Amino acid sequence: MKLLRSEAIVLRRIDYGEADRIVTLYARDAGLIKGFAAHARGSRRRFGAALEPFARITLHWQPARGDGLARLREAELQDLRPDLRAELDTLSLAAYGCEVLEALFADGEPHADVFDVLEAYLAALPAGTAQERAAYKLLFELRLLRAAGYLPHLLHCAECGETATPAQVAFSAERGGRLCPSCAGSDFRLRLSPLTLGTLARCLNVAADRFTGFRFGSLTMAEGAAVLGDALRVHLPHALRSQAFVDRFLENATPRQYDKNGP
Ligand SMILES: [Zn+2]
Questions:
Q1: How far is the CA of 181 from the centre of ligand 1 (A)?
Q2: Ligand 1 mean position to 65 CA, how many Å?
Q3: How far apart (Å, rounded) are the C-alpha atoms in residues 31 and 220?
């Protein structure tokens, strides 16, 4: 069987049996790969440290057989990203990013832009302040939701198309996104400034691999996180293991000036 060669990022790995590993990766040209690496824990020659989470590697592999697992033959390490493991915050935000990506693109087609967004997110995290990292997480979620085709309507009412901008609009990812007061009716669990939704929409006009240089106020950060959190809750097939960790990080990184139940 033909040996393929792909640029890939390791999302996670689990030990299997005495010496083997099952590794989940995202490849730029092949999308999500779940692969079996025989003797990975013993063979420094074929894999070295290349199968560590978050590592960018050049992977030599063969597509899945009947058991659904690709065969990982060899890997060359391009970037181990040791900086991400130096702090609990960066480690948990990186793990969260990998977990969200795996859940949203579980069996889809390859998206080169998704690979690039993950690569840039992992590269940006170590140098950021807590506030900047919270903004990186926001941008990462926004771009992934768009790539997956789950971007909620931000600039007009999802149900009637109304674009008027009262002081507050309602938001429900379940109903497609922004809702004008008459469509929202009593469905006002999440209400927020339309300016926040405008800011999120404008962020999508910037190159998807750019994470630095954005400045968000504390209201935009808190409302943006609530909007994207709502969209992810609706579209993710299961709860995330890293969610609690990341929520705790955000509580510390984001000033608490925002009550999602509104005034
Ligand atoms: Zn409406």
A1: 7
A2: 49
A3: 32
Q: What is the pLDDT of residues 31-83, one digit of tens each?
A: 999 999 999 887 777 888 899 999 999 999 999 988 889 999 999 999 999 99
From 35, 64, 80, give the residue that closes a domain.
80
Last residue of a domain, one of 26, 48, 80: 80
Question: Could you tell me which of 230, 256, 249 has the C-alpha nearest to residue 87?
Answer: 249
The answer to whether 97 touches 83, Cβ cutoff 8 Å, is: no
Residue 259 resides in a domain? no
Helical residues (DSSP H) of the chain, grouped into ranges: 88-104, 112-124, 130-147, 181-184, 194-203, 218-235, 243-253
* 125 and 70 together in one domain: no
Same domain, 64 and 126: no
Task: State if pTM tops 0.70.
Answer: yes
Tell me, yes or no, whether 262 lies in a domain: no
Å from CA of 135 to ligand 1 middle: 29
The C-alpha atoms of residue 61 and residue 70 are separated, in whole angstroms, by 7
Question: By percentage, how much of the chain surpasses pLDDT 90?
Answer: 77
User: How many angstroms separate the alpha carbon of residue 186 from the centre of ligand 1?
Assistant: 13
Using the mean position of ligand 1's atoms as its centre, give its distance from the Cα of residue 22 in Å: 48
What is the tens place of the pLDDT at every residue in 197-213? Answer: 999 999 999 999 999 99
How far does residue 175's CA lie from ligand 1's centre (Å)? 11
Segment 134-158, tens digit of pLDDT: 999 999 999 999 999 999 999 999 9
Q: Which of 120, 127, 126, 161 is nearest to 144 (CA)?
A: 120
**Residue 195 alpha carbon to ligand 1 centre in Å:** 17
> How long is the chain?
263
